[in-house]
Structures are given as C-alpha cells and as structure tokens.
Write a structure and sequence with these properties.
Layout: E1 2-15, E2 20-33, E3 37-41, H1 48-56, E4 63-68, E5 71-72, H2 76-79, E6 82-85, H3 97-107, H4 112-125, H5 141-153, E7 159-163, H6 171-186, E8 190-194, H7 198-204, E9 207-212, E10 215-221, H8 222-227, E11 232-238, H9 243-247, E12 254-258, E13 261-267, H10 271-280, E14 285-290, H11 295-306
Parallel strand pairs: 3-8, 3-9, 6-7, 7-8
Antiparallel strand pairs: 1-2, 1-4, 4-5, 9-10, 11-13, 11-14, 12-13
Helix pairs in contact: 3-4, 4-5
This protein binds adenosine-5'-triphosphate and magnesium ion.
C-alpha cells in the first residue's frame, strides 16, 4: 500500500524585489510504501524541505498533486496520523521541553494521564528527561533536535516526516535516533527522511530518492540504484615507487599517501591501463581491490549528470 504519492509536483516561489517567480520544484514524483523507510537525498537547495512542506500542506503548490493515505496535502483527517520534524526546530523558545510536548500533545487531542505518560516515555526515549524543565532557548542544537524528534512522535504517528533527523547530534545521539527510527519501522510505521549522512541512508533506508535541482532523478532500492554505477579500485604500492605517479600521465587516478604506501584510486574502466603502467615500471603492487559501491558514488555520479547550469540561479 502506498502511504505517500507525489506526482509531478511543481512549486514556484516569488523572490526578490519584483517578486519574480523561481521554480524550485520542477515536477517532483515519487512514492513511499507503507512500512518502509524512504531516504530523500540531494544537495543543499535541491528541494527536499520544500517537498516536505508541500506534502504537509504548509506551502501552497503551483502544480501537480500530493496524496497522503489517499487524501490531498493538508487534509485535516490525515494530520493526526503524521509526525513532522522540521529542519530548524525553533518552536516557542520560552516553553520548557515538557511544556512543548504538552502543547503538541494537546493539539493532537491527547490529554490527562495518557499525555503525561506519553511525555515521560518520549523524554526518556530521546534522553532529555534531565532537561524537561529547562526553557528551549537554553537548549543546545542537539538538545533542540532531540526534543524536536520527541514532539514528532507525540501522537504515535503512522507516517513520520523527518527533515534531517541526525543533524546536530553527537555520535551517540545519532546512534540513538537511528535506533529509534528503526524501532518505529518495526512497529509498522512509515518514514520518509532527508539526510546528508549518506551512510545512515544506506544502512537504514529501504528505498531512496535522489533529488537534484528540483527534480527527482532516481528512485528505487539502493541495491538496484547501485547496479549501474562503476566500481572504483584502489591499488597499494610501496612508497618507494613514487616515480609511478609521474608516469600515470593523463589517466584519471587519485593519488594519496597513506602510512608507508602510495594509494592509487581509479575507475574500473582504466584498471588494465593502470596495471600496465605500474607493471612496466617494475613497481611492487602490494594489493589491488574493488571499493564497495556506495550511495556517495551514486550521488556524485548523478550530480555530475544533472547539475547543469540550468538550475543555478
Ligand atoms: N520561502 C522561500 N522563498 C523563496 N525561495 C525559497 C524559499 N524556501 C526555499 N527556497 C528556495 O528553494 C530551493 C530549495 O530549498 P529547500 O530548502 O527545499 O532545499 P533542501 O533540499 O532542503 O536543501 P538543504 O539540504 O540545504 O536543506 C532553494 O533554492 C531555496 O533558496
Ligand atoms: Mg532542507
């Protein structure tokens, strides 16, 4: 079952003195299945946050359509099933953490003992019990992020929209939030998250969408998406073989010194050429191995193909 379907979404923002319109989303299409974690990745300014805001009905859309659980964006009947972590969780900074959760809970119609219990649980979950009576304005970035995640979960939502959930968190915090998100999936919840931490997206997400310049250029399971990217290779040479580096000529090889070795990194296309050059000089190849294909590799490739001048302003 599809929880979110975004179809040819277009968003124009008026900008500047003359309110000239700039097309920020240029026909964004993707879907999110029930029970999956969908990772939304793309460079700064690609349109991730704008897409989320459009899905939530916080900004009007210029064209296309959004359907959440079969309803249009902003539909009141689906709001109670959605949890949202905004990119910059400022909130009302005169409130304490506990007051924020109470306020958000009440907005969702949760009251009394049920609310108190939920607040205690969530504060515990995001490790913020110690700061429950502290005003948000006195929170650190990571503390705001943690309370932001707690408020997104207050209504035990079916569908979570998390805009950069790991942002600002220390390594332990990142791990805790990763575990929390996986736990939500285990409970059958559906999650869409944006992140610049591609390793997190790789380990957590069932499907991934890559957005560049206001267009979703790829979507699918990570394994599928990685199939058609090239494998990089690394070759280790003794650092006494430095002359090899000069002889590589025009070959696209990245050279790095690492703990007594020279490391050459190159695409599989030129593997045999590199071996030829290195062998012809009688250099000692310590090892040659393929690097794991990664989302980062895909990201770089898609950026190379899709970030033409057209989307720059
Ligand atoms: N309120 C606004 N008015 C005008 N332009 C806007 C507005 N909000 C966003 N934009 C523009 O829309 C584009 C997409 O921004 P958006 O915040 O969606 O990107 P993003 O993918 O979330 O980036 P990041 O990774 O930096 O969070 C940017 O060019 C941005 O300048
Ligand atoms: Mg953003």
């Amino acid at each position: 079952m599809i929880v979110l379907k975004v179809d040819n979404l277009i968003k124009d923002y008026p900008t500047g003195f003359l309110r000239k319109k700039v097309r920020v989303l240029k026909g964004v299409s993707f879907f999110v299945n029930r029970g999956e974690i969908f990772g939304f990745v793309g460079p700064n300014g690609a349109g991730k946050t704008t897409t989320f805001k459009a899905v939530l009905g916080f900004v009007g859309i210029t064209g296309g359509s959004v359907s959440i659980m079969g309803r249009p964006a902003g539909d009141v009947s689906v709001k109670k099933h959605i949890g949202y972590l905004p990119e910059n969780p400022y909130f009302y900074d005169y409130l304490t953490g506990e007051e924020l959760l109470r306020y958000m809970g009440q907005l969702h119609g949760i009251n009394g003992k049920a609310l108190l219990k939920r607040i205690d649980e969530l504060l515990e979950k995001v490790n913020m019990t110690h700061a429950r009576k502290v005003q948000l304005r006195k929170y650190s970035k990571g503390m705001l992020q943690r309370i932001g995640i707690a408020q997104a979960l207050i209504n035990d939502p079916e569908f979570l929209i998390l805009d950069e959930p790991m942002s600002g968190l220390d390594p332990i915090g990142q791990r805790e939030i990763r575990e929390l998100i996986l736990e939500e999936r285990k409970k059958g919840k559906t999650i869409i998250l944006s992140s610049h931490i591609l390793s997190d997206v790789e380990t957590m997400c069932d499907r991934v969408g890559v957005i560049i310049g206001g267009r979703v250029v790829r979507t699918g399971e990570l394994g599928e998406l990685l199939e058609d990217i090239h494998t990089d290779y690394e070759m280790l040479l003794r650092d006494t073989d430095l002359e090899v580096v000069d002889r590589l000529g025009d070959l696209k090889v990245k050279v790095e010194k690492r703990a007594g070795f020279i490391v050459l990194r190159f695409d599989e296309d030129i593997k045999s050429r590199v071996i030829e050059v290195v062998s012809s000089l009688g250099a000692d190849i310590v090892s040659l191995y393929p690097l794991r294909k990664s989302l980062e590799g895909l990201f770089v490739k898609e950026m190379g193909q899709n970030s033409g001048g057209e989307q720059k302003r």
